[in-house]
Records
---
Amino acid sequence: MSSWGCPHEIKGLCAKVKNLVCDPGMKGCELAGRYVFFGSEDKNKRLREKQAQATGQKPSK
C-alpha cells in the first residue's frame, strides 16, 4: 500500500491556503477541480463545471 502526501501540508496545516487545517479539495487547494472527492459534492463542483465546459453543456446545479 502507498499513500500520498501534499507538499503544502505542514503539521496538518495548508501552507498554500492561509495556514488553514488541511482539507484536500477545499477552495484554493491544488487538488480542487482535478479530482473527484467521495461524499462531497461541494468539493466536486469545480470539476463538474470544467467537464460541462469541455462538452459544451451548461453546468448542472
Note: The chain has one domain: 9-55.
---
Amino acid sequence: MSITAILLLISAILQPPPLTSSPATTAYELLAQYNFPEGILPKGITEYELDESSGKFRAYLNDTCSFSLEGSYQLSYEPIISGHISKNRLKDLTGVSVKVLFMWLNIVEVVRDADDLDFSVGIASASFPLDNFFVSPQCGCGLDCDDEFENTSLSLSSM
C-alpha cells in the first residue's frame, strides 16, 4: 500500500461523521420529535442537518431574520442556526439572539420544563408558556403579519 493510500485511509477514519439531512422530515417536524413546538424557529427554514449520534444540528435560512414579539422582545436569527438537540433541550446554540434593553444577547440554551420553555442567555434566563410557540413567527413581522394570519391564530387558540 502506498503512503498516499495509507494517509487517505487514516484521514477517512479520523473524520467525524457528516451531518445528514432527512428529506422526509422538516426542521419543524424534527423539533416535535424532541418535544419542542415549531414556533421556536421562524418560518422559512430551507433545510437542516442532524447528526443523530451526537444531536449536533444546523438549520438554514436564506438570509438573516428579525422581528418583534409582544411588542417588547426583538429576536434575530442568523442564516445558520446551530447547536445540539436532545429530548427537551437545545444547547450550545449559535445564530439566535434577543435584544434586552439596548444589548443583543445570544440565546445559548432552551429547555422545555413541562408547559414552559426556559430561554438562557448565559447570565440570565426567562421562562415563557409553551403555548406562545405553537405558531412559527415570520421574518419581518413576527406573529402580526396580516388579518388572515391573526384569524388563524384566534381559531387555533379557541380549540
Note: The chain has a mean pLDDT of 81.
---
Amino acid sequence: MRSMLRSAFAILALGYSPFASAAEVEEGFVRLDNGKSFEGWKISESPDSWSIEEGAFKAKGPRSHLFYTGDDKPFKNFELRVDCKAKNNSNGGIYIHTKFQDVNWPKYGHEVQVNNSYTHDPKKSGSLYGIVDVTEQHIPDDTWWTETVIVKDRHVTIKLNDKTVVDYDEPEGKDAFNKDFERRLGSGTFALQAHDPNSTILYKNIRVKRLPD
C-alpha cells in the first residue's frame, strides 16, 4: 500500500494525475472534445440524434453526422485516436479528410467503420469502408476500445486497441470510389456518424496529433 502511495505522489510531482484520461498523458496529442458540450463541433441533419452521456458523444437516432469545426487548418497527415463503445447490433463510423455538409452521407473523405455486430453490414470495426473491409469481429459489444487512424501521405493504418487491422497504400491517380462519393485521400476534417435509430454508439477522448506533411 505504501509503495502504491509513493508511486501516486511521484506521478503527481511530475505534473500528472493518476486519474487523468489517456488524452491528457499522450504526448503531442490535442483533445478535440471536452466531454461536456458540443463546442468545436457541428451537427448536420437530425440534431436530436446526438446527446452527451457520461462524458461521451452519444449517437442514437436517424442519420446524422457530427463534424469537427474547431480548427480552420485542414488535417492531412495525422494520428487520430477515438475511444468507442457500441451496443449490440449497432453501426457507426469515423470520417477522415471530409468536410461539413448539411444532409446525406458525407461525400468527401473515407469512413472508418465502427460496427462490431451490426447484422445488415458485414464490414466490421476498423474497415476503411469499401476499400479495405474487415469482416472479422475483433471487439465485443458494450466494451470500450480505442480506434486509431494514422494517415501519412497515401498510407493509412487502422488499429483496434493495439491490433493493426488495415495497412493500406492508396494507388497514385486513384479514381473516385464511385460517381456519387469521392473516396480518396486529401485533407479535411473529422466527422462521427449516427447511423440509424436502432444503433447506439458512444465516442469520447477524441484526440489527434498532426504529423509532418
Note: The first strand starts at residue 30 and ends at 31.
---
Amino acid sequence: MTADLTRPEIDAPEGPAPTDLEVVDVVVGDGEEAQPGATVTIHYLGAEYESGEEFDSSWSRGEPIEFPLARLIPGWQRGVPGMKVGGRRKLVVPPSLAYGPAGAGHRLSGKTLIFVIDLLGTR
C-alpha cells in the first residue's frame, strides 16, 4: 500500500544538534516492513540541521528513488529498517553516521542532517 503523502516540510530545529541518531515516526505505515539490507523505494527530503536548508530531495526531481540500504549512509542503514510501507519517518543524523567529521571530503562532512523519508516499497 502506498501512502498519499505530500512533499514534507522541515521545521527549523531548536537547540543543539543531537549526538545520537534520532528516529521519529511521523506516520506509521501499514505495509511490509523494511529489513536491514533491503532495497527500498522512497521519497525523501534532506536538510542541514543548523541552517534548515534543503540540500537534496527526490520530491524536487519529481519521482521516488530506489536503492539498497547497504549503499547508504549508516544513519539510513540504522534508521530505515523497521519502517513500514506507507509510513513517513524523520531521521536526525549526526556527522558520525552521515558523511563523517568536517574535512572528510564530502560537502556535508561535519554536518548534522535531517531527512524525512516516505517508504513506498521494500524488497
Note: Residues 46 and 115 are 4 Å apart (CA to CA).
